[in-house]
Amino acid sequence: MITFPNAKINLGLNIVEKRPDGYHNIETIFYPIGWKDALEIVPSDATSLTISGIAIDGDPEKNLVMKALRLLREDYEIGELSVSLQKNIPFGAGLGGGSADGAFMLSLLNKFYELHVSEDELASYAVRLGADCPFFIYNRPVFATGIGDILEPVDVNLGQNHFVVIKPDVAVPTAEAYSNVKPHKPEESLKTLIVLPVEEWKDVVVNDFEQSVFAKHPELNDLKALLYKQGALYASMSGSGSSLYGIFPPDIRPELSLRNCAIWRELK
């Protein structure tokens, strides 16, 4: 059985406060996009994980796909499986590719073994994999608070727009991104701002990471400016970076050719 974990972008991201446990409370809107990995499971004599596509460093056993498998095995009878993961979504990009893989694995196992676990129950497993993993269980636009684990449905439909996502060859460690951010409560909630027309988001729907990340990596600011120059209604960094995305009107089809960048387009 095969499934296709998709990426997400952040429509705005406010760092609200630092918590006693060292984490930060945030406000953001997670929005699913069509940049996808491929994940397949096949019954086998022994459990294994094969990864192709984008090379991933580290122990495969620490991959969220395998952690998801072991997590469900704690409560359900899950047989031996040959697991194949085709990585297309760049990692370290603020696109949630690894989180998507883990969450989709939970859903795939639920369907394959007919476990009849509800979405909400799957989400409770997913949060044990990572704060943004529950979003990929529901996989629809949500307003996220807490550390990104408290989700509320939100009515945002950008289906008529074109998307372009650029992932340059730049790494932005999460700790680095947080190190120079000054938490603050926004004057207006993203839930209020997001109902504005997209062309009015530019100066009010902000990603708090951009100021500190752009200061250290000015090339990312240049890419954001390029997206606006190409006609984007709105452009932003996703998550803590380093990907940038642009939302374009239906009549504009941007053409970008950039060195050392992965580019994904969804043109309607």
TrEMBL record:
Its EC number is 2.7.1.148. The keyword ATP-binding applies. GO terms for biological process: isopentenyl diphosphate biosynthetic process, methylerythritol 4-phosphate pathway; terpenoid biosynthetic process. InterPro entries: GHMP_kinase_C_dom (IPR013750), GHMP_kinase_C_sf (IPR036554), GHMP_kinase_N_dom (IPR006204), IspE (IPR004424), Ribosomal_Su5_D2-typ_SF (IPR020568), Ribsml_uS5_D2-typ_fold_subgr (IPR014721). Keywords: ATP-binding, Isoprene biosynthesis, Kinase, Nucleotide-binding, Transferase. Pathway: Isoprenoid biosynthesis; isopentenyl diphosphate biosynthesis via DXP pathway; isopentenyl diphosphate from 1-deoxy-D-xylulose 5-phosphate: step 3/6. The active site is at K8, D132. Residues 209-251 form the GHMP kinase C-terminal domain. ATP binds at P90, F91, G92, A93, G94, L95, G96, G97, G98, S99, A100. It is an enzyme of class 2 (transferase). GO terms for molecular function: 4-(cytidine 5'-diphospho)-2-C-methyl-D-erythritol kinase activity; ATP binding. It catalyses: 4-CDP-2-C-methyl-D-erythritol + ATP = 4-CDP-2-C-methyl-D-erythritol 2-phosphate + ADP + H(+). SUPFAM superfamilies: GHMP Kinase, C-terminal domain (SSF55060), Ribosomal protein S5 domain 2-like (SSF54211). Residues 63-139 form the GHMP kinase N-terminal domain. HAMAP family: IspE (MF_00061). Belongs to the GHMP kinase family. IspE subfamily. Catalyzes the phosphorylation of the position 2 hydroxy group of 4-diphosphocytidyl-2C-methyl-D-erythritol. This is 4-diphosphocytidyl-2-C-methyl-D-erythritol kinase.
